[in-house]
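To whoever is covering the structure queue this week,

Two jobs came back overnight. Logging them here so there's a record in the thread.

Job A:
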Amino acid sequence: MFKKINSLFVTMFGIGKLPKIPGSYASLFTVIFLYLLFNIFSFRADIFLFFLVLVFFISLFSINLFVKDLTNKDPKEVVIDEFIGQSIPIILFEIFHGDRNYSAYDALQIYLWFFLLFRVFDGLKPFPIDYVDKKFKNSFGILFDDILAGVYVVLCLILFMVGKTYLLQ
């Protein structure tokens, strides 16, 4: 029973078992879920941040348990890492833009940019993402490469905002 629940957790309720591009589906699900959570239901970002940290620590344990008997230590079915990595730019955006000086449509556009950028960085794996992906064949490596992809999206957002502020005045 516990093994089945753990499998549901790490595969995001079966999204990871989809035959093609499960990571992209998991990222898209995350974007839609967070859009609804923050922009339709007005959920507080600081509370979600606590939840996200909790999911991270549970994932460290759960992924190790899931891959324990597998030969492939980074199976495509494990997509909880996509949820965590994709959530990082969205949660930071919501925390720092909690005043809601943007419309739901603007938020949707921003979230979609986050999705596209995250998928690009997760797919291309620029340094140090590629290093983490190749060097750490455990739950830390599975999680941390997606966390770094999320951080790269945040850096793109910062560069865009700085550029917009100083170059487009």
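Job B:
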Amino acid sequence: MRELLPTIQEWIKTGSNKVAMARVIRTWGSAPRPVGSMMIINDNGKIAGSVSGGCVEGAVAKAGLEVIKSEKPQLLSYGVSNEEAWTVGLACGGKLDVFVEAVDFQDDLSWRQILDNTIN
């Protein structure tokens, strides 16, 4: 999360206050990123961070834009079975759940305090 704070601050300075935050909340098997990994998506479609390091990123970014527009959070689940993993050349399968929610860094007092205390 700490590595995303400068990006959040920059987005706020350029007027991009509507942001979706995606977090890995659960993993099973061989997951590409650990629980707690985060990605942020702004209303212009820019992304920072990572929840998977692979093809899931695009789907999460698309969901993030939907969440920004609707302000309704989404729980996303992705995975591949051991059998499917073997056929595409991976050692083993894995699954992950990603929670995506809209965040207004400008209006949310707790985020303002975090940003003010960490970046300034």
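Note for Job B: The chain is about 35% helix and 30% strand.

Please reply-all if you pick these up so we don't duplicate work.
Q.
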